[in-house]
């Protein structure tokens, strides 16, 4: 009987030990499961962090590449941000905006506003991030960095200030074309229609991709009026080349930032996952090269002779009349 009791006690001891071990394992998994996911259960979520609020982000594999990524990003931010100031300062010193194409500024404001909506939404909204992960995979990183959001906010403010200078300073006989006004109105009308289409199904990723497409479209067309105006005047007088040089630096470092992230993650999804940012860099660099060619090679030192005489009723109207052949804007 004593032997039977010992065996029974021994079995009970082993059972209790196994139960305690299982409880410890469950406690361990429950505590650490908040921060890490078992890669054996979720192999596609390897190298991922679970952040507060449920937001999921991929982690960096290389610290040097992460530092390089952040460095390129903030170089691009400061280059693009500072690039707005030379034109603003030039306008302030001259107290005139003759030579700066007004269509360029109007289109630029819409471009940066749509880009701000895209960047801020994808960076701050956990719902949109989840839709992004569902589409491109949980092993990918969000293709918007803090410097992208900071740049967009700054760009909208500085472009608005430049537009205000156009309103208050001497603008000669230059005007905003009705074509540009029509394009801006059409773009925001399309954006409004897309919002109501996305609202019932909460297709927010699709909606902000529309804003991303808008900023790409506006980036393509916004440079054309200034480039054509320089060609027709055979001069870049009044258009500050300093902002172009800084814009060129920002475009190159922005593209390099995306390349560094792709190398670290061994994936090029961030290029087509954020096609707007990719095309933004390429288009900006292309037109920057065009403007540098105009300024330094084709029309170096040329001064344009533009009449600044107001019409008989006073100051020239800001919006171009369709039958007005004297406007410098194209």
The helix/strand series, from N terminus to C terminus, equals HEEHHHHHHHHHH
Strand order of the largest sheet: 1-2
Specify the structural class: mainly alpha
Q: Based on DSSP secondary structure assignment, what is the total number of beta strands?
A: 2
Q: Give a quick account of the main beta sheet: strands, pairing sense, barrel closure.
A: 2 strands, antiparallel
Shape: globular
CA-CA gap between termini: 107 Å
- Count the DSSP helices: 11
Gyration radius, rounded: 28 Å
Low-pLDDT regions: 3-9, 27-53, 310-314
Write down the overall mean pLDDT.
80
Helix percent band: 55-70%
Q: What is the beta-strand fraction?
A: under 5%
Give a concise summary:
The protein is 68% helix and 2% strand.
Topology:
Layout: H1 2-32, E1 48-50, E2 56-58, H2 63-82, H3 85-94, H4 102-124, H5 126-136, H6 146-168, H7 178-198, H8 204-233, H9 241-265, H10 269-273, H11 275-298
Antiparallel strand pairs: 1-2
Characterization of the model:
The protein is built from eleven helices and two strands; from the N terminus they run H-E-E-H-H-H-H-H-H-H-H-H-H. Helices cover 68% and strands 2% of the residues. The N and C termini lie far apart (107 Å). By secondary structure, it is mainly alpha-helical. A two-stranded antiparallel ribbon has the order 1-2.
């Amino acid at each position: 009987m004593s032997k039977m009791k010992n065996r029974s006690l021994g079995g009970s001891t082993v059972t209790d030990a196994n139960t305690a071990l299982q409880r410890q394992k469950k406690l361990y998994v429950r505590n650490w499961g908040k921060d890490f996911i078992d890669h054996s259960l979720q192999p596609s979520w390897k190298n991922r962090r679970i952040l507060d609020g449920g937001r999921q982000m991929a982690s960096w594999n290389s610290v040097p590449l992460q530092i390089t990524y952040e460095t390129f990003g903030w170089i691009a931010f400061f280059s693009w941000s500072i690039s707005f100031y030379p034109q603003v300062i030039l306008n302030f010193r001259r107290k005139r905006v003759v030579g700066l194409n007004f269509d360029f500024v109007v289109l630029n404001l819409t471009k940066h506003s749509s880009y701000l909506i895209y960047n801020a939404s994808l960076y701050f909204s956990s719902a949109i991030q989840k839709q992004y992960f569902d589409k491109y995979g949980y092993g990918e990183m969000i293709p918007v960095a803090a410097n992208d959001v900071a740049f967009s906010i700054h760009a909208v403010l500085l472009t608005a200030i430049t537009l205000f200078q156009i309103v208050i300073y001497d603008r000669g006989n230059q005007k905003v074309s009705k074509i540009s006004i029509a394009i801006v109105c059409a773009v925001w009308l399309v954006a409004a229609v897309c919002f109501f289409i996305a609202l019932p199904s909460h297709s927010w990723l699709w909606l902000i991709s529309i804003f991303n497409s808008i900023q790409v479209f506006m980036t393509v067309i916004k440079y054309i009026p200034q480039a054509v105006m320089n060609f027709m005047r055979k001069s870049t007088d009044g258009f500050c080349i300093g902002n172009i040089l800084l814009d060129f630096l920002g475009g190159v470092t922005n593209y390099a930032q995306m390349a560094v992230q792709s190398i670290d993650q061994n994936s090029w999804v961030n290029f087509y996952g954020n096609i707007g940012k990719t095309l933004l860099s390429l288009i900006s660099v292309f037109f920057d090269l065009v403007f540098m060619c105009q300024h330094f090679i084709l029309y170096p030192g040329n001064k344009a002779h533009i009449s600044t005489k107001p019409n008989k009723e006073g100051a020239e109207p800001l919006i171009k009349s369709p039958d007005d052949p004297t406007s410098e804007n194209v």
